[in-house]
Amino acid sequence: MSKQDVILCESLEHSLEQAIEKCPHDKLFVLTDEHTTSLCMPALRELSPLKNAVEIVIGAEDTHKTLDTLASVWQALSEKGASRHSLLINVGGGMVTDLGGFAAATFKRGIAYINIPTTLLAMVDASVGGKTGINFNGLKNEIGSFFPASSVLIETEFLRSLDRYNFLSGYAEMLKHGLISTPAHWSELLTFNTEHIDYSELKQLVGRSVQVKEDIVQQDPFEHGIRKALNLGHTVGHAFESLALAENRHVLHGYAVAWGVVCELYLSNVKAGFPTDKMRQTIQFIKENYGTFFIDCKTYDRLYEYMLHDKKNSSGIINFTLLKEVGDVSINQSATKDEIFEMLDFYRECMGS
């Protein structure tokens, strides 16, 4: 898999000019959603590199991360004259960068694309690492491919207009990066003031968080080994998301991951010896900032079924990424159905679900 350039921008216009120069093209397209086109595109249209770009707008939110939306992007590209030498720029959150990346991967068997993430979640997670995809058959990211952007341009000034709900969604992935990297990074994330944000400090934290992911992806681009470290909190988190989708209870990805981290730190504690004090500290931060996702014992079997569909599994065995200590990761760890139900009991007890 080719390496993508991830740029923490000082000047978005200058970085964009350089990124576009790397991708000779016959026609330039910009994909946004209904939120981004009204909030971000007025300023971006003024940038000289985007003066002649053709815009494609799709519906916002994860409910539009579907085959129908993907087909509408293919159709728009086709009708507006895109060729295999065209360039697509995805401007938006994780839904746009995931779906836009998959559209680029599949249109004419693959066209070049650039990601400009506008949410914290997209900056530190979705837009970096080359994973693209859509939801399908009620399952998160069920269809997709590894197809990295040529460049990812991270402009943290976009975060000033982000609401707290979406800020915290992205921050959950940063907290995960802290847990799988170093005690120092984990600690600074737990003590960062999420109520009164220092945006210059946040920019530095975002840079460190992206570096954690980049380093891991470089070692294992196709997720055969250590890249599974990035799945901490996701086996349970994706199950929570799928349940929420099925029950029409909208939750953002990062919130589901945060609640998944609570569950998987418990498994880490009982199965891998993760320190109880660090588990409690992390769970307290999550409880204070993310609240809880209500489940009862009647939903355990459904959550278990969703976990069985997780892409990390093999031979019907549910695999987890667990921690022995902050930064000491154990991949491909299994748990029995009884252990998983005990984990869900712990979640309900400590989170007040």
From TrEMBL:
It is an enzyme of class 4 (lyase). This is 3-dehydroquinate synthase. GO terms for molecular function: 3-dehydroquinate synthase activity; metal ion binding; nucleotide binding. It comes from the Bacteria. It is found in: Cytoplasm. GO terms for biological process: amino acid biosynthetic process; aromatic amino acid family biosynthetic process; chorismate biosynthetic process. Its cofactor is NAD(+); Co(2+); Zn(2+). It catalyses: 7-phospho-2-dehydro-3-deoxy-D-arabino-heptonate = 3-dehydroquinate + phosphate. InterPro entries: Dehydroquinate_synthase, DHQ_synth_AroB, DHQ_synth_fam, DHQS/DOIS_N, DHQS_C. PANTHER family: 3-DEHYDROQUINATE SYNTHASE, 3-DEHYDROQUINATE SYNTHASE, CHLOROPLASTIC. It holds the Pfam family DHQS_C. SUPFAM superfamilies: Dehydroquinate synthase-like (SSF56796). Keywords: Amino-acid biosynthesis, Aromatic amino acid biosynthesis, Cobalt, Cytoplasm, Lyase, Metal-binding, NAD, Nucleotide-binding, Zinc. One of its GO terms (cellular component) is cytoplasm. Its EC number is 4.2.3.4. The lineage of its organism: Bacteria, Pseudomonadati, Bacteroidota, Bacteroidia, Bacteroidales. Residues 170-313 form the 3-dehydroquinate synthase C-terminal domain.
